[in-house]
């Protein structure tokens, strides 16, 4: 079966955890007002569920969560909890409609972190899930370090969660060690055995978070956990903007997310987190639709589809033809059309030669005024002769 056919007709749900896992990035702290703004922006995009924080932290964390709940956003509001009843009680106090109940499921974690047994893990998860369900909450049971867990134990864990009333299972590639091919097979096996809703939660330690999230979807997962700009622990999480645009353009999925607001959201989160967004960032970076290389600029001018995977307006960007060392004559001619100047081929070649020299000297592309000045100098030199 074609990979595109694997998601046709399916409804995928987006779960954004920028305000929880994203804020767990070392050194990142959102002000309460910023958390509220980010939640509102994500809801306006059409994100299905927002994981907004950890109520058991108390103080400002609880207050921010309560304020987000009071906004009555269109998105479901989820709080993160350990598999501890008192954590869930704190979440209930905040008024959220959903909780994530997280516990380690790999033997590595069970033995070396929790220092307990698989049986204890199942007991804690079931007890906490049953309590949450009795209080009317939607429950995602999170398998921390699921990618390194025994498949048979994962299946047992999910079956116990189902019996306790859980609504879905979050498959966590906690240390980002999976590859998209293996994770697809793993999710296929788990989904076939349990027929239970699965959410992908992938980390980027080997640069494969987005690919692994997509791999999981192809394996049968119907929820995808993401963060804006891929913010998150260590190397981060699967990026909201990358996952969505990959689903839409690579796998031809019809999404209701308003992608036109991606750049505005990414820039806001970048400033709020104090993490500068690289110009080369996939989907929303400022270089995504900047063309300088002569061959690329010429191709983009003739038909943007030659060198652009999608229309820049889809994410809130604009196309730019940059003039610098690698530019070609076509880009120069086009630039002067913007100046309402019909430059000759001879003059375009002279201008281009000087542009390249100047760009090397300054170690950057040139501003419009600098380009115009070069042309003015060439005309002045000609008059002298």
TrEMBL record:
- Looking at the record, the residues that make up the Pyruvate carboxyltransferase domain are 12-263
Keyword terms: Transferase
**In its UniProt record, which GO terms are filed under biological process?**
carboxylic acid metabolic process
Keyword Cytoplasm listed: no
Enumerate the Pfam families for this protein: HCS_D2, HMGL-like
MF terms in GO: acyltransferase activity, acyl groups converted into alkyl on transfer
The reply to whether Protein biosynthesis figures as a keyword in the UniProt entry is no
Family affiliation: Belongs to the alpha-IPM synthase/homocitrate synthase family.
Q: Which NCBIfam families match?
A: nifV_homocitr
Protein name in the entry:
Trans-homoaconitate synthase
């Amino acid at each position: 079966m074609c990979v595109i056919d694997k998601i046709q007709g399916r409804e995928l749900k987006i779960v954004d955890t920028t305000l929880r896992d994203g804020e767990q990035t070392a050194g990142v702290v959102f002000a309460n007002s910023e958390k509220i703004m980010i939640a509102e922006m994500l809801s306006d995009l059409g994100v299905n569920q927002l994981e907004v924080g950890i109520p058991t932290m108390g103080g400002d964390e609880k207050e921010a969560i309560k304020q987000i709940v009071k906004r009555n956003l269109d998105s479901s509001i989820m709080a993160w909890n350990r598999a501890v009843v008192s954590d869930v009680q704190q979440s209930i106090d905040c008024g959220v409609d959903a909780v994530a109940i997280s516990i380690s499921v790999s033997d590595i974690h069970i033995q070396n972190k929790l220092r307990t047994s698989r049986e204890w893990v199942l007991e804690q998860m079931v007890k906490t899930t049953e309590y949450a369900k009795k209080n009317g909450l939607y429950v995602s049971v999170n398998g921390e370090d699921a990618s390194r867990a025994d498949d048979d134990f994962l299946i047992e864990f999910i079956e116990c969660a189902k019996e306790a009333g859980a609504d879905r299972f979050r498959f966590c590639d906690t240390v980002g060690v999976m590859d998209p091919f293996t994770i697809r097979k793993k999710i296929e096996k788990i989904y076939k055995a349990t027929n239970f809703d699965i959410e992908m939660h992938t980390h980027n330690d080997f640069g494969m978070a987005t690919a692994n999230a997509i791999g999981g979807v192809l394996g049968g997962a119907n929820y995808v956990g993401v963060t804006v700009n891929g913010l998150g622990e260590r190397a981060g999480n699967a990026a909201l903007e990358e996952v969505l645009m990959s689903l839409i353009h690579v796998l031809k999925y019809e999404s209701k997310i308003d992608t036109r607001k991606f750049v505005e959201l990414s820039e806001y989160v970048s400033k709020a987190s104090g993490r500068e967004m690289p110009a080369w960032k996939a989907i929303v970076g400022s270089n995504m639709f900047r063309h300088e290389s002569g061959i690329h600029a010429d191709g983009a001018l003739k038909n943007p589809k030659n060198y652009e995977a999608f229309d820049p307006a889809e994410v809130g960007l604009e196309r730019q033809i940059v003039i610098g060392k690698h530019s070609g004559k076509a880009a120069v001619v086009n630039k002067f059309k913007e100046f309402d100047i019909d430059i000759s081929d001879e003059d375009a070649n002279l201008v281009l030669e000087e542009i390249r020299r100047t760009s090397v000297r300054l170690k950057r592309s040139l501003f419009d005024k600098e380009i115009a000045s070069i042309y003015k100098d060439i005309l002045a030199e000609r008059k002298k002769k």
